[in-house]
Structures are given as structure tokens and as C-alpha cells.
Design brief:
Aldehyde Oxidoreductase, domain 3; four-stranded antiparallel beta sheet; six-stranded parallel beta sheet; elongated; about 20% strand; TIM Barrel; 2 domains; 11 helices; alpha/beta
Length: about 300
């Protein structure tokens, strides 16, 4: 993991996965008129037929989310057996075996798509996160995700981000204060808030956080004038929105002079091609929504293994 950060799959991820799998299997196995089951399997595959299959990578990437696989198949049939052949975080190559599955063929066929959909999606997120995190692994800068996640998949996608070596930002709206441009705009009554409004909001946010610990306070700014005012209230983090690397470097100089313990986070318009430039400009943190909302599912397949 980048900078020694762990990526545990804990009870929260397990519970989120079970809820999602229940919904996904119900979606896949229930017809609009209420009929239930895999019609093809019911027509062709005897209930007593057993078999085995191999889960195989078809492209390069980072494996993440494998715990969902046994959860999918055990939800369909307790007699299913899933043997992992590659640990979480493995760098996959085409043809690499990921797991071996054995049990009732109906369960294998019914769970194939749900298991692949989830594993491919989470591995795609981990792969994207790894591409970003490795670019600044040698610098005192961390890459964070955002709330731009797939509805219902946030806990699992943020887990995949950690597997890829990046860091989680706040999980949701309840576990941190992030004063953004629209908060400031509505307080100021105009599209762009003046520096005084930004400072007043930072002060009010800090007071609320002190009364409701432990809440981290982050305030978004768009100009150096806003930054100067906000730094006077010593938030935990200031988000530099859509600033160029040159502006970030100027912001770092201002921060170092006025409030050196405040962290600076760059966000907006940052891509793989320019990420390192922002880190070298002095940003402590860089948040990247693309790690989740632009991730491509990693190609995998479940191949039937005939009896020897």
C-alpha cells in the first residue's frame, strides 16, 4: 500500500456487500411479472448437477473486492466452495487465475454475472487509484478520493481505492465539514462569495466542530484573497479549487507564512498527466473524483472446467 496505509476489509464492508448482493441477486433472478429463478437453468440444468469453474483475469490491473465472490455464491447455495488463488492487491496479468469455484452448477451460473460485475468494478477502481497514487509515492503528498461514487457502492468503492494505494476522504456528509463554493454562495447571496464571507463561514464551521467532536473542518477557496482570510481561522484543511500549479505554489507560500499547520488540498482539473506537477507545487493532498467515477471495469471471466 502507498505510504504504508492499510486497506482492511472489515465488518462495515462485509455488511455493505451483503446488502448489495441481496438486492443484485433479486434484480437478476426476478421477472417483472414476479416469476423467480434462472429460467435457462431451470429448463436445462439438473438441480443435482455439480461442476467447477476458474475465475481468470483477462487484462492487467489491481485485484480488489474478492470477498464479494464467496458472499455471492454462498447466498445462492451453502454448498458452493470458493478457493482464492490471488490475494487482494495482486497485480493481475491476462490469463492469471484468481480463484477456483466448485459446487452446484445452477448456483455457479446464477451467480456468475453478479460476482463478476462487482469484482470487475472494484478492481477497476483499485487499478485507477493505483495509477494516481504511484505517481506521487515518493513525495509528501497523498491522493484522496471524493464522494463521486456509484450510489449504493460507496463503502466498497472506497475500500477499492485503499487497495489501490490511495486514501479515503470523508465517507459522507455526516463525518466531516467541507464548506464548498455553493455553501458560501448561498450565505453571500451571490455566485462568488467575498473573502469576508469565507472567513465568517470558516469561523462558524470551526465553532460547530469544536462543539461536535471529532469533526475535521475543510473550507474551499477559489482565490488567494479568500485563502488569506480563511487561514486566519485555522481550519484543518483548505481546498484549493481549480487553481493552477503556479497558484498552488503561491498558496503554499501564503500558508507557510500565516498558518503553517493548515493542510492544503488541490482539486479540480487534475489528471494523471499533471498530478505530479501539483504535488511538486507543494500540495499536501490532492483529491481526484476520477478514481471512482471514471474507473473502467477490469476484464475478467468465469470459465467452466470440464471433468478430467
Amino acid at each position: 500500500m502507498v505510504k504504508g496505509k492499510p486497506a482492511p476489509w472489515g465488518p462495515a464492508e462485509g455488511n455493505a456487500a451483503r446488502r448489495l448482493i441481496t438486492w443484485a441477486l433479486e434484480e437478476d433472478l426476478t421477472a417483472p411479472d414476479g416469476r423467480h429463478g434462472d429460467a435457462t437453468c431451470l429448463a436445462l440444468v439438473p438441480a443435482s448437477l455439480k461442476g467447477q469453474a476458474a475465475l481468470v483475469a483477462r487484462s492487467e490491473g489491481i485485484l480488489a473486492g474478492f470477498p464479494v465472490v464467496p458472499l455471492v455464491f454462498s447466498a445462492l447455495d451453502p454448498d458452493m466452495r470458493v478457493e482464492s488463488l490471488a490475494p487482494e492487491g495482486t497485480r493481475l496479468t491476462p490469463g492469471m487465475p484468481i480463484a477456483r469455484l466448485a459446487g452446484p452448477m445452477r448456483a455457479l451460473l446464477e451467480g456468475e454475472r453478479t460476482a463478476l460485475n462487482l469484482l470487475q468494478r472494484l478492481s477497476g477502481v483499485a487499478t485507477m487509484a493505483h495509477r494516481y497514487a504511484r505517481l506521487v509515492a515518493d513525495l509528501p503528498c497523498v491522493v484522496l478520493d471524493t464522494r463521486k461514487t456509484t450510489p449504493g457502492l460507496r463503502l466498497l468503492e472506497k475500500y477499492a481505492v485503499r487497495v489501490g494505494g490511495a486514501i479515503n476522504h470523508r465517507l459522507g456528509l455526516a463525518d466531516g465539514i467541507l464548506v464548498k463554493d455553493n455553501h458560501l454562495a448561498c450565505l453571500a447571496g451571490k455566485m462568488r462569495a467575498d473573502p469576508a464571507t469565507a472567513r465568517a463561514a470558516a469561523r462558524q464551521a470551526r465553532a460547530y466542530a469544536q462543539a461536535h467532536p471529532p469533526l475535521l473542518v475543510e473550507v474551499e477557496v477559489e482565490t488567494l484573497a479568500q485563502l488569506e482570510q480563511v487561514l486566519a481561522e485555522y481550519p484543518d484543511v483548505v481546498l484549493l479549487d481549480n487553481m493552477s500549479p503556479v497558484q498552488v505554489r503561491d498558496a503554499v507560500g501564503l500558508r507557510d507564512r500565516l498558518a503553517p499547520r493548515v493542510l492544503l488540498e488541490a482539486s479540480g482539473g487534475i489528471r494523471l498527466e499533471n498530478l505530479r506537477e501539483y504535488a511538486l507545487a507543494g500540495a499536501d493532498r490532492i483529491s481526484i473524483g476520477a478514481m471512482t467515477h471514471q474507473a473502467t471495469a477490469l476484464d475478467m471471466a468465469l470459465d467452466y472446467i470440464p471433468d478430467a
